[in-house]
Amino acid sequence: MVVSIAREGEIAVITVDNPPVNALGHALRQGLWDAAETLDADPGIRAVVLICAGRTFIAGADVTEFGKPPVPPHLPDLVARIETAAKPWVAAIHGSALGGGFEVALGCRFRVAVADASVGLPEVTLGIVPGAGGTVRTPRLVGAEQAVAMVTTGKPVKAPKALSLGLIDTVIEGDLRAGAVAFAREAIEAPLPAPLCDRPASAPPEGFWAAQDTTVAKAARGAAAPLRALACVKRAVTGDFADALAFERETFLDLRGSDQAAALRHVFFAERAAPRPKSLKGVVPRPVATAAVIGGGTMGAGIAAALRNAGLPVVMVERDDDALERGLANLGGIFDGAVKRGRLTPEGRADRMAGVTATTDYGGLADVDLVIEAVFEEISVKRAVFAQLGAVCRPDAVLATNTSYLDPRDIAVGLLNPDRFIGLHFFSPAHVMKLLEIVPTPDTAPEVLANGFALAKRLGKMPVQAGICDGFIGNRILKHYRAAAEDLVRAGVPIAEIDAAMRGFGMAMGPFQAQDLGGLDIAYLQREGARARGEDVPPTLGDILVRAGRKGQKSGGGWYDYTPGNRTPQPSDAVAELLAGEIHPGPEMDRDAVARRLVAEMAEEAAAILAEGVATQPSDIDLVKIHGYGFPRWRGGPMFHAMQRGAEGLTQDLGRSPSDALMAVLGQD
Ligand code: 3H9
């Protein structure tokens, strides 16, 4: 039974039980409709409490139904049915009331919630707008400004804030069901508030819409849904209720079938698949209650901050007192930034720092459950660290390296109990970036691999398992992407045009801009190192720039020039001169063609990675690029994009036939 009804005197309690998240599939919509009919006809009932079993209140429409023809009762009709029921309904919220779930709650006359619940309209994150009155009722409840913030960002609001804004009527302490029934009993003794369909929507201040048009467009970076959601709220405030509902519905249906919505649904399911690899079913990770970070540089401090933010006590180890002091300053600086942005209170900062033990003595690691090494990217330095760790740590402690380019097997050479060793590749800044590449060696124990995933969950990161190769998944594709971008420069496409094309595609930055920001020298030194080892590394244009002293913004110029104190890239005559001999103009390419070429090249390298078994599934590649490299989420990632382009489109994009490996991926679903 998806919906059941119990009676507590004059109050009926409808319980929804539709695991895992009480999504509004057809059976639930029908069940709620029938319950409304039954209870309206029951003279002994004066109010209805709507509560959910399991982990959450109704988390929204059933996303798996989006590709199928809608079956009545439709959600907008159900919300209207609840809103006009003869008895007032009280939504009793725990977990999350999201999307259609919050729209059902808006149809209820009252909303009550436990303190850790949240409410929200996250539809834009799925490339759609609310489709059951969310954009129309929310401004009637809390005004246009708050409604715009909710529907254009999709960010949920926690119960205490929801209460202060008026999104919910009260926060229930203790048992939700008992509290909601008591609330309903009291509510029916006072005059009832008007349902939202009968309330006016007040106009926002002068200039509000124009300002929002700009702000929302800027934040959306090419995603269509946020601006369409804004238009819906505007219509809700300027038009009448029925007209606004019709406009919202039309917008919802239009977007639901769009490429962007398909891409975002793909990402939604990919994000739920990646953290739970099938190979780890039933595998229990080793317990981790304490952690250590070796190295207090940018990476080490970022990792330590992420661990502290997740409540883990951290030991920070550095080679000497000066380095330790710098490490602590780096860490303190991260928390200072959080305080400045209002994300952390000064007391919170003090608490974060109090949970850090700083030492230069490896002896302090004897009892630590997890150690993450983040020292200089040099094999001998890393090996020396693990030799010490092997000597002092418990034999079952999980030992991880944060290497981004070295082979983890080389780092672990000689380590006792190598089953406890794993690669955990964080991205900078490690307390911010979501991606975590998890790189087991052939010796890594399954439960240690499970530790990688458990840690990602604890830190709120997106884990993707990667095999061992140069650069793992993300940096290997990045290298190929940069080489492909250099090929375009050689073919006469201006550097600034390539960057503009990729920004136009929705990337946070173009490939050359990004190198100027991060510095060209690190990759250069790696290439030089490989060349010194006798590896065949073709010359790059980046080599020419670094050898001329152009290492990026930090040296005053890289692919672009910069005027002091200004980070805006300026096309550089010096670069043009340095590279003149390398450029042999080919056919003209417009920005679309440039972006498609480079994204198709990413897919080419990704396909090779899949063929080698370095990545498990195409959707993992998409997550790596989205969460680690600024690939636009609404494009679904390079593999999703490649599948949408198909063999013919890719042949056009690449200027040649796709490789067998890429064709094999296209042949998959
Ligand atoms: C909408 O409502 C449109 C309306 O405005 C208009 C309609 C006309 N549908 O995330 P988890 C599955 S759009 C189907 O790991 P958590 C998920 O795939 C919707 N399935 O749990 C997974 O399945 P599996 C707006 C869904 O506890 C399982 O549930 N709503 C849906 O970490 C567990 O998911 C949203 O966008 C769904 N809507 O987090 C909310 N949601 O076990 C989306 C989840 O087979 N959901 N599943 O892999 C969430 O944000 C989180 O699931 C939630 C729980 C916070 C609720």
From TrEMBL:
Reactions catalysed according to its record: a (3S)-3-hydroxyacyl-CoA + NAD(+) = a 3-oxoacyl-CoA + NADH + H(+)
InterPro entries: 3-OHacyl-CoA_DH_NAD-bd (IPR006176), 3HC_DH_C (IPR006108), 6-PGluconate_DH-like_C_sf (IPR008927), ClpP/crotonase-like_dom_sf (IPR029045), Enoyl-CoA_hydra/iso (IPR001753), NAD(P)-bd_dom_sf (IPR036291)
Pfam families, per database record: 3HCDH, 3HCDH_N, ECH_1
Location within or outside the cell: Peroxisome
EC number: 1.1.1.35, 4.2.1.17, 5.1.2.3, 5.3.3.8
Domain of life: Bacteria
Protein known as: Enoyl-CoA hydratase / Delta-cis-delta(2)-trans-enoyl-CoA isomerase / 3-hydroxyacyl-CoA dehydrogenase
Chief place where the protein resides: other
Assembly description: Monomer.
Gene Ontology MF, one: (3S)-3-hydroxyacyl-CoA dehydrogenase (NAD+) activity
GO biological process: fatty acid beta-oxidation
3-hydroxyacyl-CoA dehydrogenase C-terminal domain location: 471-562
Domain 3-hydroxyacyl-CoA dehydrogenase NAD binding: 291-466
